[in-house]
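Translate sequence into structure tokens.
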Amino acid sequence: MALNSVNTNMGAQVALQSLNRTNDALAVTQKRISTGYRVADAKDDGAAFAVAQSVRADIAGLTSANEQMGGVKGVLDTTMAGLTKVSETMSSIRGVLVKLADGTLSSDQRTQYTAQYNSLKDQVTNFLADATYNGRTLLSTATASGGGNIATVRNEKGTTYTLTAVDSANLTIATVPTDAAAAATALTGDFTTKMGAINTALNTFGGNSNYLDSQVSYNKEKMDALDTGVGALVDADLAKESAKLQALQIRQQLGTQALSIANQAPQSLLSLFR
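Result follows.
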């Protein structure tokens, strides 16, 4: 191949190829700086991008799980509040039952204490009925009215955790005792049974609440760990990219100058024809 040719300029071709490579590298660096990602899409690194998308899906799943558990926590907290008021009221009912079990009460006194008992009994019934959140309750097994067990997702895989509903009928005390003997029987029978059921429900739902709190906290920690992992996989080292950008910009300028010089080489052939 003739070196002195106006048809083929090897120097210009080499300079152009070098400049194109520099421009390509500069485009990559600029993309990383503008997006903050070393792997912004599948074109940058298909395998890394696929892994990152999978982890991001896990993070989205954990976020949704925590949101759902947050709603269930609303039901659970309402249930706990209602049961706590019921338990407090049952303490008052016990005091009234003890008085009603006293055979020395006058008829008027028994009437007064009976009315107090009925009032407290109605409060228990109302507390149990009002313990609803967004139309759901754990103090009823009637699904048609918003009761029944609640199965909530707890992780990104959709694994569920079930909260078992309690039938409020098992927590509601019987009608007022008619005499001292009936009141005494209620103290050791119906009242003790219902108080035990209330305490069991409080213990169970308290455990449920602690579990959900722990699960939400764990999910948050897991999301932080996953997010850190994704960052290590796809985030750009901006300090490194900044230094590379400056170097590439200089190479681009030199490459442009080199190409300009190479393009002027055929001009020297004109002197041969003067």
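Note: Residues 7 and 266 are 9 Å apart (CA to CA).
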